[in-house]
Amino acid sequence: MVDAPIMTRRELLLLSSVGGMLGQAPASFEPQNLSYPLGNIEGTATPPELFFVRDHFREPELSLATWRLTIEGRVAKRMEFTFADILESPTKEVEAVLECAGNPTIGSAASNGVWQGVPLTVLLEQAGVARDAVAVMLEGADSGRLMQDSPLPCSHH
């Protein structure tokens, strides 16, 4: 058996950005709605290939070189993090269930995984979140209308 090379997160970032520098566009997929019978899953963690998928809109095309996470609002200072900043931040691992909010009682749009990432509290503390702040609004890069009479998405740029 040949051991796979070990990469640092920085090397992964560099490798991932090479496709964009060569003019290769990332794959763009149509919205998906995939789930699998939960009874067929052994153990507590759902294998990645059996994890449910629920998209409302097309996957956004993003560049690791230009992507930014912005924290603003009830904070002492507006912060922008690059993908490299996120990769270099301290991470935490948590086992947790992810379930689609529209999953029916007997539905299988639920999966359990071991998630690794930067705790939101770490980033909020760096921005100096106000002590009396009570909510966080998350905004993704995807866009569209859930229903025909939904308002058009607003653009901040």
Task: Summarize the structure in short.
With 157 residues, this protein is α+β, with helices and mostly antiparallel strands. The chain has 3 helices and 6 strands.
Structural features, described:
It is a single chain. The chain is α+β, with helices and mostly antiparallel strands and 157 residues long. It has a domain at 27-127: Oxidoreductase, molybdopterin-binding domain (Sulfite Oxidase, Chain A, domain 2). Helix content is 17%, strand content 18%. The protein is built from three helices and six strands. The chain has helices spanning 9-21, 83-87, 120-127, and strands at 33-34, 53-54, 68-71, 79-82, 92-99, 110-117. The strands form three sheets. A two-stranded antiparallel ribbon has the order 1-2. Strands 3-4 form a two-stranded antiparallel ribbon. A hairpin with a 7-residue loop joins β3 (68-71) and β4. The protein is globular. 1% of the residues are buried. The model is unreliable at 1-14 and 16-26 (pLDDT under 50).
